[in-house]
Amino acid sequence: MFASLDGIMQAPGGPEEVPTGGFTLGGWMFNYWDEGMDLSASGFDGKDRELVLGRRTYEIFEAYWPYQPDDHPIARTLNAAKKYVASCTLTTLHRNSSTLLHGDVVSAIIALKNQPGPDLQIIGSGNLIQTLQTASLIDEYNVWTIPVVLGRGKRLFGETGKPFALRLVRSQVSTTGVVMSTYVPGGDIRPGSFVSCEPSDKELARRKKMVNGQK
Description:
The chain is α/β, with parallel strands linked by helices. Helix content is 22%, strand content 20%. The chain has a single domain, classed as Dihydrofolate Reductase, subunit A (3-Layer(aba) Sandwich). The chain contains five helices and eight strands, in the order ββααββαβαβββα. Strands 1-6-8-7 form a four-stranded mixed sheet, with no helix packed on it. The two termini are 38 Å apart.
């Protein structure tokens, strides 16, 4: 996933990619691209993967990648990759390499994960990520954090997401400041406190005001 520093994932590639919700900053990743970035290492080109896509991301792919030159390396791998599409509204798909997931998407993904075959890769598909993250079905997160703050837009992890810890397994920084990180789930969050002594009466009063919603 490509995400801004404040966690926005909407429309990194161009102004008209996903303008829903009045989003006007599409294409925010463009000026941070570095030819040394390895899309394949993070699965973003679909090489040796099977793709799991939400309806909106599938429609973006369907309208763009098949129309790129035959020698375009990313188009070649993305077009060739088998695609599983989660949608409540689509009834048919027009690409031979695409399969519509019927019924409950969580059950469908569990069934796919239990079958032999290449790794499954999600690209884009923010709503689908929320669903699968809540069901603990995502085994690895490849997040490229772009040094921009967008303020509004669709977030990688929304307010309804399940709280969980992550463990960093790889990280690299591009010449343009993009932090390319790979995480795996790290279990439940384990809160603690840096305070080693009993709270003062003033601190207890402050906490009570906070609980009661006082300013």
